[in-house]
Amino acid sequence: MMVNLLDFDLPGLIGWCEGLGEKKFRATQLFRWVHQRGVRDFDQMTDLARDFRAKLHQLAEIRELPVLQRQDSSDGTIKWLFDVGDGNAIESVFIPEDDRATLCVSSQAGCAVGCRFCSTGHQGFSRNLTTAEILAQLWFVEHTLRREFGLQQRIISNVVMMGMGEPLQNYAALVPALRTMLDDHAYGLSRRRVTVSTSGVVPMMDRLAQDCPVALAVSLHAPLDDLRDALVPINRKYPIAELLDACRRYLPAAPRDFITFEYCMLDGVNDQPEHAQALINLLQLRGSAGVPCKLNLIPFNPFPASGLKRSPTEAVQTFARLLMKAGIVTTVRKTRGDDIDAACGQLAGDVLDRTDVQRRVARQRTIEIIRAQA
Ligand code: SF4
What we know:
By secondary structure, the protein is α/β, with parallel strands linked by helices. 37% of the residues lie in helices and 18% in strands. The protein contains twelve helices and 14 strands. A hairpin with a 5-residue loop joins β3 (67-72) and β4 (78-83). Iron/sulfur cluster is lined by residues 111, 113-115, 118, 120-121, 164-166, 199, 219.
């Protein structure tokens, strides 16, 4: 089988090229052609020696993920469904905002954690993605949109590992993918703009701090262990106190001086004033027990199998007010791509037809925003 060059971070590619008798700088040139310029055809890599290109033709390829489907939302959000074989599909979501353009990337086909409010969790786990399959999402979306929008400059400014899967349960494939996202010879993203979201795989949080510290988001969703046990089952293995200890250990290595906590608002389950108070008590313990943090309140996107409902707007506002009054920086996440089931926790939805007009208007707005950011 041909080697997929998307499987390598730069040190990996250098090692592979050296095995072919090629110098280190040739590997760097190749890496730049693939990731910075999105070129798949070795013949277009004009500064590579002819005999090196001949070897590449024989041995290697840049293997894309087949696109099963694309949906464009009226708000500019775009969702792709990629085929990863054996009947498995994963999703990536592009979310343009005024000051950034974010790609939400999947790390696994399905997920073994089984959070109650998450439609991916309800599907069960199929398999880990390879490094190439993780990076292929970024590679494809970045270069596809550059071509479509007629732009030369970088489009995606932020990556969040918040698509399908628990990234820290696919650690070996994740780290080379993160390193490539950060590499100046590839996407050159700042550590602050690459976020790994975890349900709380404590030992791997410690390893990430050592190996590739990027921004960290922790799916908290409950302030008390018995409630979190029911919503995020991994809590039975790594309960809240252990999770917060791991957050504190992560902070010295982190590119930001806070941890982001995600909190999905579920009607009558975790959205009452007493939950807000318990959260305040948990996060604001003085001295060594507190955690510098920001809290993201996420409107739940209902799906039939969950048996859960979205919290009413007033409940969310009351909850947010209580936290802010206690001095905890709190934001209520806007739902994006609602009309294409691309919102958080919805990455397994049905297909809906959208009009070309919606797509054109949204695309024009996105191009204007990205030009303004340049
Ligand atoms: S929320 Fe994340 S960790 Fe939990 S089941 Fe869904 S994909 Fe897995």
